[in-house]
Amino acid sequence: MTKPLTKDDYRADDVTVHRDPQRLTRVVKALRSAGRNIALVPTMGALHAGHRQLIREAQVMQNTVVVVSIFVNPLQFGPNEDLAKYPRQFEDDLGICREERVGLVFAPSVEDMYPDGSGGARVTVHPGPLGDELEGASRPGHFAGVLTVVSKLFNIVQPTYAVFGQKDYQQLQLIHRMARDLNFPLDVVGVPTVREHDGLALSSRNAYLTPEQRQQAVTLSAALTAGAHVSSQGADAVLKAAHGVLAQEPGIELDYLELRGTDLGPAPENGDARLLVAARVGSTRLIDNIAVLLGKGDE
């Protein structure tokens, strides 16, 4: 049963939903003054099992109140991307938050987040050179939009911890850098990718896939796994194995397949690295990545 609290906030059973950024800031300040930690889980809604895992990771942190933000951020969508059709299922999202015992949900409007009326921010956060590589090369301006909204959420929620999935690995690395370089007083926590039984990384965009495309999409995780399996043989073997798997599925339109260091710099000859892939399956663009250990261990 939904009961209004104010014109900006309301109670949905045992979940309090805040619309107004200033009111939420006052609430979390009061919680921190009472000795509670705040764990922020930023989302764009369309919550799934991967988001549930982020929430559960946040809940095990000591003395923590979990805040889930639900906001489809227009600033991170390009002119030809899927902002208008991005899945929005707010009542279902609230149901998941209720099941996961989330204390606070922050669900602002675009006008709440970008009040100058333009639907965007006049001042944005520049991601630096990494923001123009990989995803940034295919989606110009995307990471400026991501970092701008995340910085706003950090200022509004003032969390002790901010929890993100490793599926968006480049995003996670850039948020780590922003938090460090701009001196946000919080810990950024990365949570391993949650996958379907056949290896497909969970994503809100999976809902766009037809049954046939859903089967084709598994090729992405299969290619990453094949590359990781031969990582002891070095970088060339990793990329050859992964490309070999991708080539077997004509329904995959590859954007990039790259092997990088864990900080997304050049991959080392030996040691920890990251294999990343982006591709279109039909009209749906999917990304995935996997950790690899180069030049060590058994085949």
Distance linking N and C termini = 56 Å
Domain module tally = 2
* Biggest sheet architecture: 8 strands, mixed
Alpha-beta content class: alpha/beta
- Portion of residues within helices: 25-40%
Order of helices and strands: EEEHEHEHEHHHEHEHHEEE
- So what's the CATH class of the largest domain? Alpha Beta
**Low-confidence regions:** 1-7
Enzyme class: ligase
Catalytic activity: (R)-pantoate + beta-alanine + ATP = (R)-pantothenate + AMP + diphosphate + H(+)
Keywords: ATP-binding, Cytoplasm, Ligase, Nucleotide-binding, Pantothenate biosynthesis
Pfam family, one: Pantoate_ligase
Task: Write a structural description.
With 299 residues, the protein is α/β, with parallel strands linked by helices. It folds into two domains: 16-191, HUPs (Rossmann fold); 204-294, 2-Layer Sandwich (Pantoate--beta-alanine Ligase, Chain: A,domain 2). Helix content is 34%, strand content 23%. The protein has nine helices and eleven strands. The strands form two sheets. It has an eight-stranded mixed sheet, with helices on both faces. It has a three-stranded antiparallel sheet with strand order 9-10-11, covered by helices on one side. A hairpin with a 2-residue loop joins strand 10 and strand 11 (284-294). 37% of the residues are buried.
